[in-house]
Each structure stands twice: as C-alpha cells, then as structure tokens.
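Predicting structure from sequence has reshaped protein science. With that in mind, we have picked out one protein's residues alongside their backbone shape tokens:
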Amino acid sequence: EGTARVAAPSLDGFSDGIHHWRNAHGKDYPRLAPEQVTQIADNLLLYQRKDGGWRENQDPTRLLDAAERARIVSESDVAGGSFDDRNIYTQVEYLASAHGLSGDARYRDASLRGLEFILSHQDPRCGGWPHTVPGRERYHPYVTLADEVTPGVLSTLRKVLQQPEFSFVPTGLRERVQHAVERGDACLLQLQVRQNGVPSGWAGQYDNLTLQPAQGRKFELPAIVVQESVATLRYLMSIPRPSPQVVASIEAGVAWLRQVQLQGLRLETFDAPAEDFAHHSSSTDRRLVE
C-alpha cells in the first residue's frame, strides 16, 4: 500500500501580501510552486526579523538572488512588523505546517519566535492587536479589526491550542496563548459599538487609549463597518461552546446587519479604463443602481 500524500499548506493567507507586491513591482518574476514547501519556508526564515516579526506585503514564493538575500539579511535587525494584510500570524501557521511535513527544527523555532512576537504585542488595555509595530503612522498603535488583524490573530491562537501541527508548543507558552485568547475574546465583546445602549457592529480601528472608534487613513472614518463586523462575527461563531456573552454578541451583531441591509439596490461591476495605484491596479468600476 502506498503512503498517503500530505497536501502542501495553503498559500491563501499570503494572498494580500502577494497581491500588493505584484502591484508594486510587477508580475513578471520567477516564483516557487506551492508544492515547494521547504523552499517557501526557507524564504519565510530569511524574511523573519530577529525579534520574530515580519515586514508586510512580501511574496514568500519569490526566487531570490544573492543580492536580494543579502539585502534582506541586512534588514533583519530592524525591529517590529505589521499585522496588516493578514501578516505575521499567517507565517506562524505556515511554518508550523512546514515543520509537520519536514521535521525541520528551524521552522518550529521560527514559528515559536513569531508566536512570542504576537503575544508580546497584544494591547495591554484591551487585548486586541495593533496595525503595525513600532508605529510609523498615527493610526498604527490603534487596536485594529480592519483586514482581520485582531480576529485573524485570535483565529491562529485558537489553532495553536487545538490543532496537531502546533503540538510542539511547550506547556508554559500554551498557557500564555490561552490567556491571550481569553483577553482577546473579551476585547472584541468590549469593542462592540453600542447605539442607544444596544450592541451593534464593530469599527475598523479603535483609539488604543480611549477604546473609541477612530480614524485610520483618510478614507477609514470612525464608523461601524460592515466588512469588519462580518469578520468579527465569523470569528466569534467559530468558538466552540461559546459563552452566553459571546452568543448574545453574535445575535446582536447579526440583528444589526439585518437592520442596516439596503433593499431594492444592486451593486454592478463594469469595465473601466485601467488605473494603477500604489498598492492596487484596477480595470473595473462599480455603480449602485435601483
């Protein structure tokens, strides 16, 4: 009988970073195939900074020449990283899976360093995670739900507690992860915006001192945001055996989504002149029609 083939870990978690890299640098460059797990994991080791973080918006499947490898190594002393665009926790997961496939201790150790980085940057006041550390922009220290920062981190921490590829996590660290999950879950319930005393949805980011909805970039206003509310609700609904408080939060969030639903309208996507932006390109536009 043949041995069952173990699937390569998914690259879906890196899709934002890959998309932004290709928009900024072009799409015509050699890349590793998804099945080349150890080579991709080696790239993640190279990109990881000495404090355990990763810079955002990189393509871990790129084939790197000697000059680029030297440049990346020279930047490894830079502290911090960004949780934006589903970064850092995705590397932690991928390296854990790569360790399970290969048994390479380097991948285990790098995953543990990334996990320590995550825990060290949990917001002390609320229990969520910031956009970027150290902060370079005004909004970087804010407790962030946009782009699934806090819900995404918490989803990964729950995998650390539940899934066999993280069996290498020692007991003491596992207990810290459990505590971080409890604090993070409580933070999400605390941040659910109340309107006239009734829980509704969630904002994209919150001032890390006042815990009130705050402005991110110019187009990210202090507001309840449907997309971030949906991501948060999906995370809360993934919790096994949720507490009555979590159930009440979910039911209130779903009720708010139904309340703000637009009726009798359709969002149409249509062809438009191609445009390139700093991190995006587009050949379509949208219009709202009755």
Summary: The first strand starts at residue 81 and ends at 82. The first helix runs from residue 15 to 25.
